[in-house]
Amino acid sequence: MPRSADDPARPLSPLTALTPAELTWQVDDIGEAPHSSRFGDVYFSRHDGRAETEHVFIAGNDLPRRFADWQQSRPFVIGETGFGTGLNLLCAWACFETHAPTGARLHLISTERFPLARDDLARALSAWPDLAPKARRLLEQWPEPVSGVHRLWLGERVVLDLHLGDSAECLAQLDGRVDAWFLDGFAPSKNPEMWRPELFTAMALASRPAASVATFTCAGVVKRGLTAAGFAWRKAPGFGRKREMLVATLQAPAMDDDRRRLTPWFLPPPPQHARHVAVIGAGLAGGCVAQALARRGIRVTLLDREAPGAGASGNRQGALYVKLAAETNRQSRVYLAGLLHSRRWLAEIDPQRRLWQDCGVLQLATNERETRRQQRFLANHALPATVVEGLTARQASERAGLSDGLALAHGGLDYSQAGWVRPAALCQALAATPGVTFKRAAVDALRREASGWRLQLADGEALVADQVVIATATQANRFDQSAALPLQPIRGQLSSVTLPPGSPALERVVCAGGYVAPACDGILSFGASFVPNEDDAALREDEHAANLAELRRTLPGFVAALERAGARLTPGELGGRAAVRAASPDKTPYAGPVPDAPRWQSDYASLARDARRVPQTPGAHHPGLWISAAHGSRGLASAPLCAELIASRICDEPLPVARELADHLHPGRRLIADLVRGNVPPEA
Fold first, then answer.
1. Which residues pair with residue 160 across a beta bridge?
2. Model-level pTM greater than 0.85?
3. Do residue 302 and residue 408 come from a single domain?
4. C-alpha span between 298 and 284 (Å, rounded)
5. In angstroms, rounded to a whole number, what is the distance separating the alpha carbons of residues 653 and 672?
6. Nearest to 498 by CA among 584, 595, 447, 573
7. pLDDT digits over 362-381, tens only?
8. Counted domains in the chain
């Protein structure tokens, strides 16, 4: 049976909320400590939990010395099997700040199946006042309990990827390598499900050569699991009443890593030198990549034929929203991860909210078909109400700030984490990131040389960079190297009207056939038209009329109130802006290395005859050439996450998404799909 490019034979992780930790608090004259009601075990010792962490995990992995000696450009990576209260990782962060040289970076990875509620986490960490600033950074970004990977920026040099879900399953999907492991969790006798062979195998496969492990337990199941996975362990003095603990080093994984056997084309290219990266395109996709690289200390030249945000990213206002499928699929998982990521990212780069507002987005069900689809979605996805919630018409009206006379006629889904953004202003801010140099120039051609990439500019000049990222929307496949990636132009026109005094105010973005956002700077924006296969950006009165008709259908009472206040709502008097977006055939962005298309068509030609005949040839890519494109109308929810993915690949870091989602975003997926479907002849 033919399989798709990202191999649906692999189990698909669901979009779901996780069960929060159930706690009781043990309080005495020593202090208080959280106790797990589910597992009947403590999170840390009440006597001196921090000293135990320092002894078992920090000293057990020899971190002070290793941090002091760290000279690599990539970050030192610590993996942990149970986040708990975060005490271990906060201590590792403190140790890193004390011992690591300036310029070194730390990447923390932790899994957690039963995350603590934010208030419980704050209470637990309050026991250590000197860790309060670090705990505050963690709490500010603490994610909703949704399965998947959540990237948190703890400091300029410290990143945490929190993988919510079963430890073994999360680590099996980890795309990255670990230098030192904190093998932590409730005792094997209390939580035997965690300490199963699959966990140790996943750790070994995600380890750098000679990765270290430290754990508080000497249980036989742990010693056997480590040995079977290729770790050589030894006993070491334990802490307090525990006489012994284990430390281990990876010798050789006991099993071959065959996770790429069915999809060898997605094997990532080896890391390349990257001190200077050229990013072509200064819209949202390119600006996000430039900012992500610059914050890692890489020098970036950002090029655009016009100005930052001059193209489809140049609207005054845009909706940060997603529309998730009724049945779980990888595209929906990408976009939900992207929405939550963008929400944290915006709060990090603009805490004053000058560029965005998290006012929430209502996705109305204005017909029976959409009502049934939303009902199926809610039945299939047990997500927290703080992420998405089904509302009646009355509830939706209240959330939107619409009084009885303006009330909505339909209910729908409410995404309280979503909202609106100033895309043009955001692009300008990203281009002004320290370490980013903007250059107004059109790039005519790319050529790979021994020293890197040579960019031939339209004015006759040339620019040389170690690596290149293409982020030019509909023009992203005009280079010889990227020409095989199909892109569809989609024209979109946004309409706007200046609101007179006394106009009603929306308190949420409202989406149906189009969208309308709360007024920004006294201007109401709504639309946008959707015209596939058109690349003309001139304003059209008929599209203003269509946008206005959709607004009247969605919010008739609101529009009537605007007209009573004196708003000039006729197509000929509306302002607006038209631009051309780019989409891929499957409507998922391209984010990753650019495949060498002729090589792929040759190396994987057998797929056209029999999709079960998978050659074990790693995918060939243009070294140091990347693409972020095809974000369509949902770029605010996808471009920041895709930028982190690309920057992480360039800098040899763990990815901010599960492996299966990185594969789903890979630009080469379309080449494989075409081969499997017979759309590309084997001899091409």
1. 108, 152
2. yes
3. no
4. 19
5. 26
6. 573
7. 999 999 999 999 999 999 99
8. 3
